[in-house]
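Intended use. Records such as the Potassium channel domain-containing protein entry shown here are meant for training and evaluating sequence-to-structure methods. They are not intended to support clinical decisions.
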Amino acid sequence: MKPKATIRDYYKSDENVISDEDDEMSQNETTNQYIPLVQEKGRLRTKQYHTMDVQPLTPAAITAEAILKNLGSRLEQRKKLILRRRWLVDVEFVMAVIGILLMMIENELFYLDPREKMSTISLVLKTFTSITTGVLLIAICLYYQTGMEIRMLDGGVDDPFAVTPFWTYVAWIVEVLVCAVHPFPGNIEVVFVSPRGHSRVASIDGILSVLMMFRLYLVGKFIVVHSRLLTDPSTQSIGALSRIKINLFFVFKSAMSESPGILIVSVMLTMYTVSCWSMRTCEMYYTRTEESQGFSQSMWLSAITFLTVGYGDVTPQTHCGRYIAIMTGLCGLASTALLVAVIAKRLEQTRSERYVFNFLSRIHLENKHKNAAADVVKCSLRLWVMNKQGGKPTLTYTYFRWKLRNAVREMRSARATLAENEESTVGVIELSHMISRMTVSIEKSLVAQDRMSEQMTKIEKELQDMRSHLK
């Protein structure tokens, strides 16, 4: 019994000997052939072969295989870039929160002891705040670089300027400038003038601390990248096909549709808390206000400004406080508008409630129309009898004429209202249901016609057979 020939024996035969030196020289000549049963990336490609012979690879197969490999590598690289961008957003969020917490601790120590600005604790806290700010700026730059790489990969180009719009660079610069603001190590003092004209030398850390709260926009970016609308691959595919950007506004609208009450309450509480803290920081830094009094006054002033009441009993004593009051009023107007929109949407009738209301209204209008028509008939008969009797018009005759006119007017009004009610009940959903029912009925009629035509064809064939037999 002969042993089975192996691939090694196949290459060692006299007719198919290829040396190692000739392999490199003949590589260009053998590119159109490949060896079967060779493992490639953990998979045995044996489904294409029926024999152990070397089979030529056609140019179409080479092109399709290359396209599939290129597409798979691009998708894998895009997934890695998206995961890296999400990780960078996490780093931005953590660094921003740590920097804000360190800044708030340093400010609270200053409220307890104004001489704390020159202490070692203040220097250490501000140094760590600067370090977190530097890491935050690096993460922001890497985030935009990753976005450019994703655009380059999607567009299939190597030039980042070809796929990156101008406003992306503007947003990059603005974001870097906003996040770079923080209290620097040391104590930088300048002269501040109050609205009443009093000048005073004070530290600029108060203004820098208030401006540092603009980093809270990173909370929205963090929520977006971790939202199920962005992490779900199907959502990304649908958004890419429909050319809809899954960004902060899209996630905000989706949250407003799902749970508007919780979202609006969270936004209002966040705005109010930031406003209270900012107002307290401005008033405590640049006025000689006690801590307890400054906290209570800041809460009261922020509340009446946020609710657009403005009693006028408490006013900001600094320019910084006035700017904070203006921003608080604008945020209050925006949140009030959102609240009114949500309440109005909640007060609307549902589809089933609207159907029940329209049905009851239609019944009421039909009864009203019938009663008015009956009154018209009764008054007409009474007036006809009185006209037959003759005589001068009396008060009864005038009363029935007045009642007849009112009945006719009421009948016409009920008829017009009933027509308007019927028109208002037909909406887009009802129209779509009507069209779908018509489509189904048309399809059924077409099927019935096809069956009838088949039956007629069979009858014609049978008649022809009968004629042929009779002949």
